[in-house]
Design the sequence.
């Protein structure tokens, strides 16, 4: 957990992904899992891996544990959805649809 947080803090997102993945493989207490999924999602997002980020945010929310990081993950999912809709709307206008 601490190694993942440290990697994220120093901006080493590839190391952060590795640390959070290892942490999740240890089957931590469920109340801590939304944090790990959210933080790993943030690392993916910072590296431009939006599909992987979305998957982690979704995993954090799907646990249905009411935590701060689950709420942050929900906001990120909404932001990704909005950006996707705006992008597809712009593509439809450019193609004439």
Sequence:
């Amino acid at each position: 957990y601490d190694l993942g947080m440290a990697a994220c803090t120093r901006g080493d997102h590839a190391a952060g992904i590795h640390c959070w993945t290892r942490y999740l493989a240890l089957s931590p207490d469920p109340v801590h899992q939304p944090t790990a999924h959210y933080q790993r999602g943030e690392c993916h997002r910072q590296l431009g891996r939006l599909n992987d980020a979305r998957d982690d945010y979704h995993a954090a929310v799907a646990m249905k544990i009411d935590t701060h990081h689950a709420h942050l993950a929900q906001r990120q999912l909404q932001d990704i959805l909005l950006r996707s809709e705006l992008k597809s709307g712009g593509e439809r206008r450019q193609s004439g649809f």
